[in-house]
Amino acid sequence: PHHPLVDFAIEQFFSRIKIYFPRTVVLIGPNHFEKGEMILSADMVWLVKNGTIEPETEIIKKLSENKLIAINNQILSEEHSINVIMPHIKTYFPKARVIPIIFRKNTNLIDLQNLVNELLKNVPKETIFKVSTFANSCNVYDFLSHAGDGANTINAANGLTLENLSEIRELLAKEVATDVHITFWQQNIVI
Predict the structure, then answer these.
(1) Strand ranges (E), 31-69
(2) What is the pTM of this model?
């Protein structure tokens, strides 16, 4: 979950992965309000209730220079798929830097794959990828159990299916946690 109403579930999720000590957290979520370019990031310092979180500036700059993302600090600061997670990152991984990324519905899957490939070339080994499933009321089990009913679309507005997400996941890691948030450890450790 990535909504303030389910903060307890986010807290529970982070308490399970606190055994890792990432240098970087790549946080990918939906652009709920469809603002700005198709894929956005932010290069600002995040001010949260328990301190500040530094961005992974050099990598974000490189992604922007390669036209894989656009920078828009204002839109990302307002996006709850990002800003609700930030205090938890500070609590559980206080020294980690972040690469926050959101994307709009109908973002081209090839653009996402190119972004993921470039991230993998540039992030340190000690990186957690936290990717939202783009569903506020369903989890992975719900989608899998109803896939035959045509409910395999993660979010009809996004047009991404479980197969699409699986393709992105395979670029990131070989194993995945079965949680509402699909999280990957760069060193292929199951979380």
Answers:
(1) 39-41, 46-48, 51-53
(2) 0.73
Q: Which residues pair with 96 in a beta bridge?
A: none
The closest of 108, 122, 111, 113 to 60, measured between CA atoms, is 122
3-state class percentages of the chain: helix first, strand second, coil last, to nearest 5 = 40, 20, 40
CA–CA separation, 79 vs 44, rounded Å? 14
CA distance 56 to 80: 20
Strand residues in 51-158 grouped as ranges (E) = 51-53, 70-71, 97-103, 127-132, 153-155
Asked if residues 40 and 75 have their Cβ atoms less than 8 Å apart, the reply is yes
Q: What is the pLDDT of residues 48-86, one digit of tens each?
A: 999 999 999 999 999 999 999 999 999 999 998 899 999
Q: Please, are residues 137 and 91 in contact by the beta-carbon 8 Å criterion? A: no
86-107 pLDDT per residue, tens? 999 999 999 999 999 998 888 8
Calpha distance 131→27 (Å, rounded): 6
> Are residues 7 and 108 in contact, defined by beta-carbon separation less than 8 angstroms?
no
Predicted local distance difference test score (pLDDT) of residue 190: 31
